[in-house]
Write a structure and sequence with these properties.
This protein has six helices and ten strands, in the order E-H-E-E-H-E-H-H-E-E-E-E-E-E-H-H. The chain is of the alpha/beta class. Strands 2-1-3-4 form a four-stranded parallel beta sheet. A four-stranded antiparallel beta sheet has the order 5-6-9-10, with no helix packed on it. The termini are far apart. The mean pLDDT is 91.
Length: 275
């Protein structure tokens, strides 16, 4: 059954910035090309949002008015360099912790796809869907995250031999849909609204309990602390009032911090080798 689309929005300019010490620029170029195809060919027809991705060469500034997708080692590096909750201009930012993925044995390219699509789907990290209980006296808010429910590497798909994340369709958030009545995700693995696949999760907020945002998993109970989200992740930022969000440093300051960070890593490595 054809899936209805959202109204078309202007193309968003996204600058891809590689700050990771574990990814060479040559590693990044084919991934960004695959991400561009995913957004324009797969995501835009369903969600009505398109983006133009541009890699920022070392030593140059991101374009004014652009959103950022930053490739980093981990959340510690992000804070050390000065990448925070928004860009230096107060615009949306997505972060990919490549070294953390490599240590965990997961695909950084799937994470990059995941973070990009979710930034496009809910750039301000404040959209939700409300599901009332049967008495219409209480209910649960579901975070409007388009990749969490089907995020596992095993559920992804390839474009030009690059593994990318599956993502849900708008119908996933529509509780009136019946089992198998329409397509709920790109790979057609989900059969019901709000269904979570293996290693999938979704942020939920019970408006009656006052417990704040919690992560719901397929097992109903988180089995890994990774579900809590790293500092600076979308999960962590959703918990923080927007007036407390911090803009990233200007790029010229980040460049200086990045040089100091790499020098520190080199010093640590030399000390280890000498020990």
């Amino acid at each position: 059954m054809p899936q209805p689309t959202h109204a078309q929005t202007p193309t968003i300019q996204i600058c891809v910035i590689n700050e990771s010490t574990v990814l060479a620029d040559t590693d990044v170029v084919p991934v960004v090309a695959a991400l561009q195809k995913q957004v324009t060919n797969d995501f835009r027809p369903i969600w009505g949002t398109d983006a133009e991705l541009t890699i920022v060469p070392k030593g140059t500034q991101p374009a004014n008015g652009s959103w950022w997708l930053v490739l980093l080692d981990d959340s510690d590096q992000a804070n050390a360099l000065g990448y925070h909750d928004l860009t230096a201009e107060g615009l949306p930012i997505g972060k990919v912790f490549a070294a953390s993925d490599l240590k965990a044995g997961t695909s950084w390219t799937v994470t990059a796809s995941h973070e990009l699509l979710e930034m496009l789907g809910d750039p301000n990290i404040n959209l939700t869907v409300f599901v009332q209980n049967n008495n219409n006296t209480a209910g649960v808010l579901y975070a409007y995250e388009v990749c969490d429910a089907c995020e596992d590497d095993s559920l992804g798909y390839q474009i030009d031999n690059i593994l990318l994340s599956d993502f849900v369709y708008p119908s996933w958030f529509e509780g009136f849909r019946t089992e198998g009545s329409t397509q709920f995700d790109r790979m057609n693995k989900i059969q019901n609204p709000f269904q979570l696949l293996v290693n999938g999760y979704i942020g939920v907020f019970n408006v009656s309990s006052g417990s704040g945002w919690q992560q719901q998993t397929m097992d109903k109970r988180p089995t890994n602390v990774l579900y809590r989200g790293a500092v600076g992740s979308r999960r962590e930022r959703r918990d923080i009032p927007h007036e407390l969000w911090i803009n990233s440093l200007p790029q010229r300051k980040i460049v200086g911090n990045a040089q100091k960070y790499r020098q520190t890593l080199q010093t640590i490595q030399k000390r280890r080798e000498a020990a």
